[in-house]
């Protein structure tokens, strides 16, 4: 490799290809669940529910963008709004039973796909790759983050 600039160009190009493949794979795994929808459902499951404004803040997205995404998830029967017991003015988003099932199905499919794609990698290579991804994503915390256009 010629220099640092060349390496960064290759990384940028390959990360873009990775994101494009991830979107295409998500569409094949479940027709109702885009990569964005999968990400939002995963976050709701991990958090045990949260407000739409919390999703917008976490992913650094406009409230109207989250509103459209949540409306689509509600229409598909994957998410429901529940009144916050501590503050009845607040609506908290939760996965429905169907949402839990769809998320589990897609998560299993994604896990299998990753295992297949990385089957030929050695243990040390996998560990290094995992460390690099953790380091890269930790460095992005103040930047575009998960919801950005990286």
TrEMBL record:
Gene Ontology MF term list: DNA-binding transcription factor activity
InterPro entries reported in the protein's UniProt record: ArsR-like_HTH, HTH_MarR-typ, MarR/SlyA-like, WH-like_DNA-bd_sf, WH_DNA-bd_sf
Signal peptide range: none
Species for this entry: Streptomyces spectabilis
Residue intervals of the HTH marR-type domain: 8-138
GO BP term, pick one: response to stress
Matching Gene3D superfamilies: Winged helix-like DNA-binding domain superfamily/Winged helix DNA-binding domain (1.10.10.10)
Stated name of the protein: Winged helix-turn-helix transcriptional regulator
Stored PANTHER family: MARR-FAMILY TRANSCRIPTIONAL REGULATOR (PTHR33164:SF57), TRANSCRIPTIONAL REGULATOR, MARR FAMILY (PTHR33164)
């Amino acid at each position: 490799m010629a220099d640092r600039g060349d390496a960064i160009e290759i990384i940028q190009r390959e990360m873009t290809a990775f994101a494009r493949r991830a979107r295409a794979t998500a569409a094949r795994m479940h027709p109702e669940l885009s990569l964005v929808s999968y990400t939002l459902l995963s976050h709701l499951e991990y958090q045990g529910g949260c407000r739409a404004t919390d999703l917008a803040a976490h992913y650094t997205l406009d409230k109207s963008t989250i509103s459209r995404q949540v409306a689509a998830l509600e229409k598909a029967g994957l998410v429901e709004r529940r009144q916050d017991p501590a503050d009845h003015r607040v609506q908290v988003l939760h996965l429905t039973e169907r949402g839990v099932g769809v998320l589990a199905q897609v998560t299993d499919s994604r896990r299998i796909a990753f295992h297949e794609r990385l089957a030929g990698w050695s243990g040390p290579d996998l560990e290094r790759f995992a460390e690099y991804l953790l380091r890269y994503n930790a460095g992005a915390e103040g930047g575009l983050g998960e919801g950005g256009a990286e």
